[in-house]
Every structure is written in structure tokens, then in C-alpha cells.
Sequence to fold (197 residues):
Amino acid sequence: MSTKKNTFNKLIIILILLVIISSCSSPVPADDDSLVTPTPTEVFSEAPVTPEIPPSPCEGRAGEIEAQILVGPADIVGLSPHSIGSIPFSVTTDETPFLVQGGGDVDYGEILVEDWGTYEVTMVLQFTINGECVESDLGGELHLALEMTGFQLVEVTSPDFHGEYPWEGTVPFDFIFPLEEGASYEGEGWTFVLHLN
Fold:
């Protein structure tokens, strides 16, 4: 009787083990949606970055052209040889083409008094500037048409002589100045120097 009981107990233990083994080895379906908890993903959309464009070297540019004009034969008699004045200019537009305009007057008047008589020089000049500021690899350039209009009068007076030597006319100049303080052009009887504000 005890042998039957032992056999029966062994069978029950074997059955319990088989049930345990079969429950542990049953595969979980990989694609079973009921067992997978979805994780929400946040999508961040960044605004496109617009590269910052540096301002043009021509934008808002202003300055003056220093004019040094040789005054006839003034230096021969000991008067100041040059009439010196400034011609202001500025860029008048906010975008390309950057137009440039300006103008001004340069006046000169000196008299030399000697025992033999007097030597007097008078000069009145009007300048106009028109042109364009152009961007370049080196930073920018002023392409200017400068026009000088005016007159000069030399009067020589002595006890037995009086002479007058007038000049009147218009002289055009064309320049390309780099946008650099002190850039200059020089010719016979004249020098123009750029000054930037």
C-alpha cells in the first residue's frame, strides 16, 4: 500500500513539475501590442536660422573731400600757394545703388603790399559731387564725379601800372577713392584728400 502511495506522490510531483516547466517556457509573442506600452516621442521643430548679413560699408557713409588748389602765381610773390577748403558729401540712399551727393565752396583772397605796389589774388570756387559708393573685396569704393566751377583774378597795381589777369571756367575730375581715411589724388595744381566721418 505504501508503494502505491509513493508512486502516486511521485506522479503528482512529476505532473506539478511539468506544469511549472510548460508555463515557464511558453513564449511571449514579440509583436503582442497588449504587452507593449508605447513611449510618446516629442518632436522639436527648430526655426531655420537666418544668417546675419553684415551692414554694407557704404550704408550711412559720410565725410568730406579736402581740396587743395594752387592759386595762380601766388607762391612766386610770397603769398600762401594753396586755397584749402572742405567739400562735404554723404550717401543719400539706404540700399544699393548707394548714391553719393555733396558740394561746397572754397574761397581765397590775399593781398601783398610792397614798396613797388600791390599784388592781389582772389579766387572763388564751387564744387559739386555726384557718384556712387560701391562694395568691393577691400571694403568699398567711392566712384565720384567732382566738378569745380569758378573764377580767379590776379590784380597787379603800381604807381604807373595796373594789370588784371582773370580766369574763369569749369574743370571736371573723376576719382575712385578706397573707403580709407586720408586716401588722396594729386595732379598739377590740385590735391584732393578723403576724410571719413
Remarks:
- The two ends are 122 Å apart (CA to CA).
